[in-house]
From TrEMBL, chain A:
Compartments where located: Nucleus
Protein name per Swiss-Prot or TrEMBL: Auxin-responsive protein
GO cellular component, as recorded: nucleus
GO biological process, one term: regulation of DNA-templated transcription
PROSITE patterns the UniProt entry points to: PB1
Protein family according to the UniProt entry: Belongs to the Aux/IAA family.
Predominant localisation class: nucleus
Subunit annotation: Homodimers and heterodimers.
Keyword flag Membrane: no
Domain PB1: 101-183
Function as written in the Swiss-Prot or TrEMBL entry: Aux/IAA proteins are short-lived transcriptional factors that function as repressors of early auxin response genes at low auxin concentrations.
Annotated InterPro entries: AUX/IAA_dom (IPR033389), AUX_IAA (IPR003311), PB1-like (IPR053793)
Automatic annotation (TrEMBL), chain B:
Span list, region Disordered: 1-46
Entry keyword Transit peptide: no
Listed name of the protein: F-box domain-containing protein
Gene Ontology CC terms: nucleus; SCF ubiquitin ligase complex
Biased composition, class Gly residues, residue ranges: 20-32
Swiss-Prot/TrEMBL GO biological process terms: auxin-activated signaling pathway; SCF-dependent proteasomal ubiquitin-dependent protein catabolic process
């Protein structure tokens, strides 16, 4: 049926695929080339096409139109039947979420001006730290000296970055502050 | 033929009998006093008639007093068929005019028969217009209706429109023409913007209800009007204000002031431009609310750096809103605010989370408190697990709708047959279900049919086209067959998945009460259509898309089309020849065929068919892409 690649392999491959999007959502499949054969082989067999093949085997032969409709899987007008109002609402939500970003100010003790970063761009604390180091390395005395990255949360308290899960951090962080020197050492001890 | 005009005689010239001046104004009391003189002024069209004898006169007056108590329109239709006297009396006492298809009757004719109506419910485009299957500009304009009513119904109080095109000018005319006007409800309409709303707000001094539900409110950016500020400055009579679908921000200061001076306000549904902090202000002003649409339910970044709302403060507002029974909105919900609604969950009868991307974990603490919930709308992001939680607690659930977050054929959906089974086991009083999924089994649907025998509405949408039972690979015939067999009260059915002619045989055999049937990508041959049209005697609305039904199937319904409100078919196998034959054999049917807007109607194949009974023949506002046969 297909070129010998197992479905399990393809699923595993798909699981490691990097892509943007909410967990659990799939990017829309590219429309397959139009063909009248119901057992069309595709570059990426998925569970769905397995169902299709079963359907093709069990169903009695029917008119050509229905068969080709199944095989093409191009997006059809008005299907699934969701009101455009609802579809547009979600698109708008996704758009504003993507566009808005999660910008927070970053201040560093002794630096003449602040920076602003988009927290959504980073996957986790490691990337954030690296980005901040990169951003502030031009200011003298940074290399080698102790520093702590802290943030101000919703309640206005100064918290150490890294204690809570990343998602919780991004949703509660209002601004970042890099504390350097003696103050940092006093607070942290050896933890870094 | 149309539901409200069943008593109408077939010949065009019918006598009209209009009451004297006293007749219409005596509606106020329960037992309306009839006009003083037995010989009322009569206005007879065309011919001069003998007045009915005095005894007949009195009988009609008595009858009117009795018929005033008859509210149900189907009962009224039956009453109007008894004889001419009953027809006249019923026509004079009908207060609400329901017109299920605006093209089935003309404004002149409807308003001419029912002279004393105070309310109009009018539906326009076919339902498949919601899914972009009806080209823009097809019709269903409110203008001719409002113009006719402005002249004929000075005492009009209520208007409810669904899928009509309403312009700003129409709304302005409406606002100017009716001094007692109180209720305006617009559902899935388009053509108007904030200027129209401003006119209504300003000129309808007795406005009690302004409900805008899922309309397409278009505004050019420069033309946005601050309509909320246009309400009268004195205390208003507002009981319900819903504007979730109005996409532009509203003047919050004006809104808060409006809520503060609307002591009767019970239902308030705001749009997503109202932040949770602003919502709290509104709730403080109106603790008596019963229905609340929460807007965004998150903190929209505020320019002046206002402090963010504390969850505890928000929760206290909900504690204070002791009368809340219905919650909706949650358009951008920040999950940390969701717990604020815990205090009201136990009292909730209706909860709409269908715009909130809640996970099962976020839903559980909410739903486990909602013991009294009867209506629940939710997104499939909650998964089977979320539905299990709902099934565990909501023993009184009557209506469930599970919408897809990703409405594409190939999306992963977290709900499946497992969720359906859980719901059926937990919520046995279920009457109405709309369920979008990607994976379903016959067994699950059969289980639901056995557990939920009170089902009146069953709409299952398996989003992948032609998808069979995902475990057995069989078509979904047996599942839907079980539904029509076991759910004896079923009146509305929507089918999906891989389906053969067999399912339609079942529907025809057992679905004797089915009034509305939606079919997509189903069936093998004309047999399906024939089964349904011959077997479903109560069928009123049939909408079909992308199914292999042709002229033979279409013609098998000739005996029944006058009993239906409409038949819609697109992307089937119809030809002009078959549609023309239907049009010829049924002169009272309007048969519209159309393709896409720019295509010529030259080929014999018919892309879209919309036929409906009508008392007034072909409409006069047909756009170029529609051909009436």
């Amino acid at each position: 049926m297909d070129g010998g690649v197992g479905y399990a392999d393809m699923d595993a491959l798909k699981a490691t695929e990097l892509r943007l999007g909410l967990p659990g959502s799939d990017p829309p499949e590219k429309p397959l080339p139009t063909t009248t054969t119901t057992t069309a082989t595709t570059a990426r067999p998925t569970k769905r096409s397995l169902d299709e093949d079963r359907a093709a085997r069990r169903e009695p032969s029917e008119g050509g139109r229905a068969t080709s409709t199944r095989a093409t899987k191009a997006q059809v007008v008005g299907w699934p039947p969701i009101r455009s109002y609802r579809k547009n609402s979600f698109q708008a939500m996704k758009a504003t979420a993507e566009a808005a970003g999660l910008y927070v100010k970053v201040s560093m003790d002794g630096a003449p001006y602040l920076r602003k970063i988009d927290l959504e761009v980073y996957a986790g604390y490691k990337e954030l730290r690296e980005a901040l180091e990169d951003m502030f390395k031009c200011f003298e005395g940074c290399k080698g000296s102790e520093y702590a990255i802290t943030y101000e949360d919703k309640d206005g308290d100064l918290m150490l970055v890294g204690d809570v899960p990343w998602e919780m951090f991004t949703s509660s962080c209002k601004k970042l502050r890099i504390i350097r020197g003696a103050e940092a050492i006093r607070g942290l001890g050896s933890s870094q | 033929m149309t539901e409200d005009c069943d008593g109408e005689e077939k010949d065009e010239e019918t006598r009209r009998w209009s009451p004297g001046q006293g007749g219409s104004s005596s509606r106020g009391g329960g037992s309306g006093t009839s006009s003083s003189s037995p010989l009322k002024n009569r206005c007879v069209r065309g011919r001069v008639d003998q007045p009915p004898p005095f005894s007949g006169q009195v009988l009609e007056n008595v009858l009117e007093n009795v018929l005033q108590f008859l509210a149900c329109r189907r009962d009224r239709n039956a009453a109007s068929l008894v004889c001419r006297s009953w027809y006249r009396a019923e026509a004079r006492t009908r207060l609400e005019l329901f017109i299920g298809n605006c093209y089935a009757v003309s404004p002149a004719r409807a308003l001419g028969r029912f002279r004393c109506a105070r309310a109009l419910v009018l539906k326009g485009r076919p339902r498949f217009a919601d899914f972009n299957l009806v080209p823009v500009g097809w019709g269903a304009r409110f203008s001719p209706w409002v113009a006719a009513m402005a002249a004929a119904y000075p005492w009009l109080e209520r208007v409810c429109l669904k899928r009509m095109t309403v312009s700003d000018a129409d709304l302005a005319l409406l606002a100017r023409s009716f001094s007692s006007f109180r209720d305006l409800t617009l559902i899935c309409c388009d053509g108007f913007g904030t200027p129209g709303l401003a006119a209504v707000a300003e000129l309808c001094r007795n406005l009690r209800v302004l409900d805008l539900i899922e309309n397409d409110v278009e505004d050019e950016d420069e033309e946005v009007v601050d309509w909320i500020s246009r309400f009268p400055e004195t205390d208003t009579c507002l009981e319900s204000l819903s504007f979730e679908c109005v996409n532009c921000p509203v003047n919050f200061v004006a809104l808060e002031a409006l809520v503060a001076r609307s002591p009767c306000l019970r239902r308030l549904r705001v749009n997503q431009h109202v932040s949770v902090g602003q919502l709290r202000c509104l709730m403080v002003r109106a603790p008596q609310l019963t229905h609340l649409g929460t807007g965004s339910f998150e903190t929209v970044p505020v320019a002046d750096g206002a402090a963010e709302l504390d969850v505890a403060e928000l929760e206290s507002s909900f504690v204070a809103s002791k009368s809340l029974v219905c919650l909706s909105g949650f358009r951008m919900v920040a999950p940390e605010y969701l717990p604020a609604i815990y205090p009201v969950c136990a009292g909730l009868v209706s909860l709409n989370l269908s715009y909130a991307m809640t996970t099962a974990e976020q839903l559980k603490p909410v739903i486990l408190r909602c013991h009294n919930l009867q209506t629940f709308w939710v997104l499939d992001t909650v998964g089977d697990e979320g539905l299990r939680a709902a099934a565990k607690t909501c023993k009184h659930l009557r209506e469930l709708r599970v919408f897809p977050f990703e409405a594409t054929e190939d999306s992963e959906s977290a709900v499946s047959d497992a969720g359906l089974v859980a719901i059926s086991e937990g919520c046995q009083k279920l009457r109405s279900i709309l369920y979008f999924c990607q994976r379903m089994t016959n067994a699950a649907v059969v289980t639901m049919s056995k557990n939920c025998q009170d089902l009146v509405v069953f709409r299952l949408c398996i989003m992948g086209r032609h998808r069979p039972d995902h475990i057995t690979g069989e078509p979904m015939d047996e599942g839907f067959g079980a539904i029509v067999m076991n759910c004896k009260k079923l009146t509305r059915l929507a089918v999906s998945g891989l389906l053969t002619d067999k399912v339609f045989e079942y529907i025809a055999k057992y679905g004797k009460l089915v009034r509305t049937l939606s079919v997509a990508f189903a069936g093998n041959s004309d047999l399906s259509l024939r089964y349904v049209l011959e077997g479903c005697h109560k069928l009123q609305k049939l909408e079909i898309r992308d199914s292999p039904f042709g002229d033979a199937g279409l013609l098998s319904g000739i005996h029944h089309y006058y009993n239906m409100r409409f038949l819609w078919m697109n992307s089937c196998k119809l030809s002009l020849r078959g549609c023309k034959e239907v049009a010829q054999r049924l002169p009272r049917l309007v048969v519209e065929v159309f393709g896409d807007q720019n295509k010529e109607l030259d080929s014999d194949a018919v892309e879209k068919l919309y036929l409906y009974r009508s008392l007034v023949g072909p409409r006069d506002d047909v756009p170029s892409f529609v051909k009436i046969l």
